[in-house]
Write a structure and sequence with these properties.
Number of strands: 0
Number of domains: 2
Radius of gyration: 19 Å
Number of helices: 8
Distance between the termini: 37 Å
Largest sheet: none
Order of helices and strands: HHHHHHHH
Bound molecules: zinc ion
Strand content: under 5%
Shape: globular
């Protein structure tokens, strides 16, 4: 029963995250309620705005002009409830402070994932509050990762990325990690602490490298690193302990 409630809440949240994904890069208000089709400007009727279901019924097209609705509307409405359900199951089906903490991270994470993917930016409006929220959670009783680990994680992630960006710029004259990535890794550190940050950086770099090779990415074109960092961090939140255990068992250390 609770799973169904989380699923519905997640889908509705996801619907709101989509508004953020399409409006924050355009610096539009996310509170102003009426959505309209970006092509024909027709106001979207409430019954065309039901999460997940409307996208399928309309076959991903505007009901009036037939122009394609971006796939992120469907993906985020589906991914949000799925990730929240996995989180809830991983927290022994407890609605705890830790559940609340990672719900916030996953929410911001999904919005940052798609904005960076489409626009190659990570807005300060999202990364800076996330750093502050992570730090606040680390001081609360019943939290999972204390302020010491979180402080070291955020600071070392920040310095590592700053140093890498500086070194890359000095040696090749090109930009690698942007300021947005540097603030994002600090936010990840503030939520996941030292070990989570280390896991995220290794995971993100490895997957990004594989994708770069598979896509035969042109080095001159921009490449968003944020989605990989977010994927790494969410993987750590949902399955980090299991993955590390498997890895150690593989080498007979554990
Ligand atoms: Zn339209």
């Amino acid at each position: 029963m609770f799973y169904l409630i989380i699923f519905i809440f997640g889908a509705v949240f996801g619907s709101f995250f989509n508004v953020c994904i399409s409006r924050i890069p355009k610096k539009e208000s996310i509170v102003f309620p009426n959505s309209s089709c970006p092509n024909c400007k027709t106001k979207i009727k409430p019954y065309h705005n039901i999460p997940i279901i409307s996208y399928i019924l309309l076959k991903g097209k505007c009901a009036y002009c037939g122009s394609k609705i971006d796939i992120h509307y469907f993906l985020v409405e589906l991914l949000t409830p799925v990730l929240l359900i996995l989180l809830y199951a991983g927290q022994n089906e407890q609605i705890s402070l830790v559940f609340f903490k990672y719900t916030i991270f996953i929410s911001f994470g999904l919005i940052i994932f798609f904005i960076d993917l489409y626009h190659y930016i990570i807005p300060d409006k999202l990364s800076l509050p996330l750093i502050v929220l992570g730090l606040i959670f680390s001081f609360l009783p019943n939290t999972d990762i204390g302020w010491m680990s979180v402080g070291i994680g955020a600071l070392s992630g920040f310095l590592l990325f700053l140093f890498t960006a500086f070194l890359f710029q000095k040696t090749t004259g090109k930009d690698s990690l942007g300021g947005g990535d540097i603030k994002l890794i600090a936010a990840i550190g503030a939520f996941l602490g030292v070990w989570g940050t280390l896991f995220t950086v290794l995971f993100a770099s490895l997957i990004a490298l594989v994708i770069l090779i598979i896509l035969r990415h042109d080095n001159k074109k921009p490449f968003p690193f944020g989605p990989f960092l977010i994927s790494g961090a969410i993987t750590y939140i949902l399955a980090g302990n299991t993955l590390i255990e498997l890895y150690l068992r593989l080498y007979n250390i554990y």
